[in-house]
Amino acid sequence: MLNTLDLQIQYLLLLQHFREVTNGVFDGFFLGVTQLGELIIPFSVIAIIYWGINKRAGRLILFAYGITLYINVFLKMTACIKRPWLLNPSVKPIESALPAADGYSFPSGHTAGATAVWGSIAFNWWKNKLIRYSTLLVIFAVAFSRNYIGVHTPQDVIVSLILGVFIILGADALLKLIEKNKNADMIFYTAAMIFTILLVAYLQIRCGGQMQSYDPLTDNVNPLAMKHSSYPKIAFLIGIFTGWILEKRFVNYRVPDGYSRKKVVWLIAGIAVLYLIMKHLCTLFMLFVPAYIAYSLLAFVCTLFITAIYPLVLKKVFK
Predict the structure, then answer these.
(1) CA nearest neighbour of 295 among 307, 316, 305, 281
(2) Of the candidate ranges 76-85, 172-181, 305-314, the one whose mean pLDDT is the lowest
(3) What is the C-alpha separation between 65 and 244, in angstroms, rounded?
(4) Which one in 130, 131, 176, 277 has a CA-CA gap of 20 to 30 Å to 121?
(5) Integer CA distances (angstroms), 255 to 43, 56, 57, 232, 258, in order
(6) Pick from 108, 112, 292: nearest CA to 200
(7) What is the dihedral of CA 45, 51, 54, 58, to 10 degrees?
């Protein structure tokens, strides 16, 4: 009798067989879809909403994304579940997807991130059927793409989807609580930083214990490398909440009303600068520090740019 894991592997092998019989005709499409759960597209969407459409909606997306990153890092290092092809050698993922699929498998970071971003958009504009159905379609397409390209089991994406829904509802409730109480923002920020420090300490302890039994000849995941890959996610989290508190306390940016050519030009300029930062700043950092620290600094700068630095620029421009 097949157990749950066997059924999941059979499902992945079925998708793999489909890829083979169709000569990979849909591979490019689903590799593109999976990009909707990576950083540049979600961050561009967050920035446009936060800077030019609805700052409160942008805050919800950022909160949901930050909490998602925290839970994702914790669960990956706690569960330590291997990738599908390590669980069963018969699974052959699309080769070009492998560089972004290092480390542990559970839960799916792409699915979690897509649910946090696109799900928050659906939540904010639920009454708009076009937005609701298109964003939900994006979420399920990203989740399915992770199975289709062979880098996650159904368990990885289903848990991420379920967690994502609860995170969005929790983030919205948290924001409402903060908005009702004058000093609740500083209380939350302090608590968030304390929990972040505890997460870093947990990673140190967890990694130290795993390294004692790590054998590079037989173990496919290096705990030290996994820990280092978690630091940029933690830096994103710190940047999100630090930028949020700075903007709330000192910038107080107000989204310009209506539509104007000037507004569109400045939004495009901001996205272009964000892209340049993400594309080139890490190279500069790596001249002075190890790669994992460079990526962490880049993550912090990017989120600070979105949440506080560029809103300050826009406030001056639209004063």
Answers:
(1) 281
(2) 76-85
(3) 13
(4) 277
(5) 18, 10, 11, 29, 9
(6) 292
(7) 50
* C-alpha angle 255-261-262 in degrees, rounded to nearest 5: 60
* Model pLDDT, residue 290: 92
Of 104, 115, 105, nearest to 153 (Cα)? 105
In this predicted model, what pLDDT tens digit does every residue of 230-256 receive, in sequence order? 999 999 999 999 999 999 999 999 998
Going by the DSSP 8-state scheme, the letter that residue 96 receives in this structure is G
Q: Per-residue pLDDT tens for 191-212?
A: 999 999 999 999 999 988 888 8
pLDDT single digits (tens) 145-180: 999 999 999 999 999 999 999 999 999 999 999 999
Alpha helices in 22-128 (DSSP H): 27-34, 40-52, 55-79, 84-87, 109-124
- H-state helical runs in the chain: 4-21, 27-34, 40-52, 55-79, 84-87, 109-124, 129-148, 154-180, 184-212, 223-246, 261-276, 282-285, 291-304, 310-317
- Among all chains, which residue has been given the structure tokens 């000037």? 262
Contacts of 5 (CB under 8 A, 6+ apart): 87, 153
- Kindly tell me the burial class for residue 3, based on how many C-beta atoms sit within 10 Å of its own C-beta (0-12, 13-18, 19 or more): exposed
Burial class (CB in 10 A: 0-12, 13-18, 19+), 236: buried
pTM for the whole structure: 0.91
Structure tokens at 169: 């509802």
Sign of CA dihedral 236, 241, 245, 251: positive
d(CA 196, CA 217): 33
**Rounded CA separation 223/46 (Å):** 32
Mean residue pLDDT of the chain comes to 91
Which residues, 6+ apart, have CB-to-CB distance to 101 below 8 Å? 83, 93, 151
Quick one: pLDDT band at residue 80, thresholds 50, 70, 90?
confident
